[in-house]
Amino acid sequence: MSKKKLVFSGVQPTGNLHLGNYLGALRNFVSLQKDMDCIYCVVDLHAITTFQNPDELRKNVFETVASFIATGLDPDNSIIFNQSSVSGHAELAWILNCVSRIGWLNRMTQFKDKAGSDKEKASVGLYIYPNLMAADILLYKATHVPVGADQKQHLELSRDIAQKFNNDFKCKDFFPLPEPLIPKNVSRVMSLRDGTKKMSKSEESDYSRINLRDTADDITKKVKKAKSDSEQIPDNIKSLEKKPEALNLINIYSEISKNTLDNVLIEMSGKEYSYLKTKLAELLVSEITPVGKEIEKLLKDRSHLEQILKKGREKANIIAEENLKNIREKVGLI
Ligand code: TYM
Predict the structure, then answer these.
(1) Residue-number span of the structural domain to which 217 is assigned
(2) Does some domain include residue 73?
(3) Are residues 104 and 172 in the same domain?
(4) Looking at residue 135, which CATH number applies to its domain?
């Protein structure tokens, strides 16, 4: 780890990753590894804040690593490991639990969404999850964090925690304040069935999302069935403001075709959405199905994936232990 800028990000191993994870996070992970030191973590301790079947969890950790590699992460270049294998995450999380404030956690909208109407029954882990996320980032003194828009509030909390730690322990600039790196048009890829909800692993209908392991046939069917609009495609974005499903398809098309929204509207205006869907399905098939095939291939060689995790854990642990030594000293722990 030589350069000063350091990227950290995490993905939960809760099953099939989807187009939202891909456009919101993974594609950025891959492009960042060219210019910066990067650490990418499969955050299994975050996953268990809601109950996970242990066998499924193990399987999902390997599937997430395979997805990292299949999208283009290079384990010789980036550090790739699972969170629970570096115990410093849990240790720093405890210290930060004592720095973070209950009032700050009470403002976290994702907890409110995930806990639903019966907060009393949510795990304590789910409630303090943003403190663990701050620990993930600060354990490595990461400066940049590529995430989708749904993680923005957690990132702001991480900055607040870093700042309070630096103030409380009178060590200005000890923790850098991590910068979120959020993609512009696809910061929140929406469900294909309901453009007001984000695409997610937890939505019941599989037609709401494109999974990285979907076949060409699945992708084409899902795009065809996606909600859009009965009117023709307009020539300006403003007209799509009240049509979230149509706007979502245009945003995804713009991103996948690597074309600006203005150019997409020039290409598409006056056409039916069925035309856009045909083109979009073709592009998605050519970008996503090779990733899916590579995931399948990688999953057949578990020992290769174990090796990647082992190497990543060793490298991560060296940085974590070095930083923890200083953190313990600042706090007064012997
Ligand atoms: P997770 O596992 O829910 O999602 C992984 C990444 O995918 C992004 N994402 C999306 N982006 C755009 N549109 C969507 N529909 C969409 N759905 C998911 C997420 O924003 C995320 O970047 N708490 C985090 C994991 C985490 C973490 C960290 C991230 C733990 N520690 C430290 C950064 C730094 C989470 O649950 O992501």
Answers:
(1) 206-297
(2) yes
(3) yes
(4) 3.40.50.620
- Answer yes or no: do 162 and 35 share one domain: yes
If one counts the domains in the chain, the total is: 2
This prediction has a pTM of 0.96
Q: Is the dihedral of CA 319, 322, 328, 331 positive or negative?
A: negative
Determine the distance separating the centroid of ligand 1 and the alpha carbon of 83, expressed in angstroms. Answer: 14
Q: Which residues line ligand 1 (CB under 6 A)?
A: 8-12, 20-21, 24-25, 43, 46, 133, 136-137, 145, 147-148, 150-151, 188-189, 198-200
> Ligand 1: which atom is nearest the Cα of residue 199?
15
Catalytically active residues are 114, 198, 201
> Which residue's CA is minimally distant from atom 14 of ligand 1?
20
Cα 233 to chain centroid distance, Å, stands at 31
Order across the sheet with 6-11: list the strands: 79-82, 37-42, 6-11, 144-146, 179-181
My answer on whether 264 and 139 are in the same domain is no
Residue 65 lies in a domain: yes
How do the pLDDT tens digits run along the chain, 334 residues long?
444 799 999 999 988 899 999 999 999 999 999 999 999 999 999 999 999 999 999 999 999 999 999 999 999 999 999 999 999 999 999 999 999 999 999 999 999 988 888 889 999 999 999 999 999 999 999 999 999 999 999 999 999 999 999 999 999 999 999 999 999 888 999 999 999 999 999 899 999 999 999 999 999 999 999 999 999 999 999 999 899 999 999 999 999 999 999 999 999 999 999 999 999 999 999 999 999 999 999 999 999 999 999 999 999 999 999 999 999 999 999 9
Asked if residue 161 is part of any domain, the answer here is yes
Contact predicate 195/20, CB 8 Å:
no
Task: Looking at the structure, tell me whether residues 122 and 239 fall in a common domain.
Answer: no
Distance from residue 152's CA to the centre of ligand 1 (Å): 10
Asked whether 328 and 171 are in contact (CB, 8 A), the reply is: no
Distance, in Å, from the CA atom of 253 to the CA atom of 6, rounded to the nearest integer, reads 31
CA of 238 from ligand 1 middle (Å) equals: 28
**Ligand 1 centroid vs 148 CA: distance in angstroms?**
6
**39 & 128 share domain:** yes
